[in-house]
């Protein structure tokens, strides 16, 4: 078959397949053009999920008549002044967006540059362009895209429902709005609830915009991230480990102001949170990487969603190090949402009603319908019941929290002074303006883990020699794995060696563990090694070893503690990084403010 050159209309449609994937990609390209034009206000309107209408109005610099004519031609752009494909300093640069959109939709562009007395308007219908004509318009650009993919019905069939396409457009606008806090974004239309992100100015502009998009709970539980290494800068905010989600959709990553979903950056975030978050949970972060354009290739993906770094090790190390430093600086801090969730569970509307009980009215439980309601004074029984109550001279049990009042300086501490132990599992502490409930096992597990890490990092872990070495019998393959990792285990103070086939002998254990179930510890370590030994790097393996040991050396639930022990645990939590969550990412304590408790009981 002879080779022939494809017609221009077909070439444009092929290019459209690379650039215009769905309505959200159209919005992305056009909003990026508006940002590159210096817009400070961008209005987006959609209908039918963007399939019927996409209108974008901005107050950027606009285009002259000559620029407008070239803008709808293929490979025409104003964003490569030196024709250097490596030095990309704008969001859009391919020069294919407008002609590609015009080839599969009905495109109308109206624009005005400040140097011209009036605006100009141009129409492109399925790749057919009309002549320019004058238009009344303020400085800026208005673009309308109607009937997307009308000329390629097969592509239209592959689009999702209007609701799904609407959600995709919303996500694109949110990501671009997060990267440009000084620009006002408004998103409206007949297919959606309106969104409006006012421009944020000043020192806290970025966090203000992040709160507009990610919610106030992120603002209240975000840690500032700021680092720089070899000309690469990183800024943004990372949520506390206990503020997490079931998927990674709340992770927003940007490179030179461009939203990306880069595998290297996602992996770096996962690695930084690996020892403070469960494997099936994902943190909330918004990170902004600034790097020389020559050190990153943004043209490896048609939608520019992925990038390639010249030095990926430098970038990954910067992200992991900055996040770990931010998490360590948080100390014992836990999320503010923990107390709110606790109060929500205690509210009258959240109680579980007995089986067979009719659903209560929307206002909550009606005490008058309760079989345990008090007898009314008219029945003559209230005074009799009151007399029986007053006849009780002493309480039926000694519920005093302690013989002595706690020291005022202890109550003034962040985690307060211990007042009681509940169910031999939870420590109740009093602060100046509320109470703190601590999970003693989860908290001590984190403290032991941090002690083991410090000891291993120092190279001289404290170990306690066993008076009689303990022999642990294991399957032969497990014993072999432990023998192969004996040097790594000794770095934490656990000294073991082979003791014949299918057995190991333990001579020393880490001092931080105290009295522990040695056989259970060794077996758990063997199981962990069998699962991830070959898949993880040395540093990650050591973290797993430390976490397994810490679980065995922590204060168990069901152990009764003295007040002195409880206070010592609280003080150590205040001085230990990451103590606001256990090794599995769960909170170690929740704080309830006195004002919230009073509202719960109707006192305020």
Unreliable stretches: 350-365, 374-401
Computed structural class: alpha+beta
Strands, count: 25
Indicate how many domains the architecture comprises: 3
CATH topology of the largest domain: Ribosomal Protein S8, Chain: A, domain 1
What percentage of amino acids are in beta strands? Answer: 15-25%
Distance between the termini: 85 Å
CATH architecture of the largest domain: 2-Layer Sandwich
Count of discrete alpha- or pi-helical segments spanning 4 or more residues: 20
Principal-axes geometry comes out as: elongated
Rounded average pLDDT: 82
Helix content: 25-40%
CATH class group of the largest domain: Alpha Beta
Rg (CA only): 32 Å
Briefly say what this structure is.
The protein is an alpha+beta fold and 604 residues long. The chain is built from 20 helices and 25 strands.
How is the topology of this model organized?
Layout: H1 8-19, H2 23-36, E1 41-47, E2 53-58, H3 65-71, H4 97-104, E3 106-112, E4 119-125, E5 128-129, E6 133-135, E7 140-146, H5 153-157, H6 162-179, E8 184-189, E9 195-197, H7 205-214, H8 216-220, E10 222-229, E11 232-239, E12 244-245, E13 251-255, E14 258-260, H9 263-272, E15 282-283, E16 285-290, E17 296-297, E18 308-309, H10 312-329, H11 337-346, H12 382-390, H13 408-411, E19 417-422, E20 426-431, E21 434-439, H14 440-458, E22 463-473, H15 476-484, H16 486-490, E23 495-498, E24 503-510, H17 518-532, H18 538-553, H19 563-574, E25 589-593, H20 594-600
Parallel strand pairs: 1-8, 13-16
Antiparallel strand pairs: 1-2, 2-7, 3-4, 3-7, 4-5, 4-6, 8-9, 10-11, 11-16, 12-15, 13-14, 17-18, 19-20, 20-21, 21-25, 22-24, 23-24
Helix pairs in contact: 1-4, 2-6, 6-7, 9-10, 14-18, 14-19, 15-17, 17-18
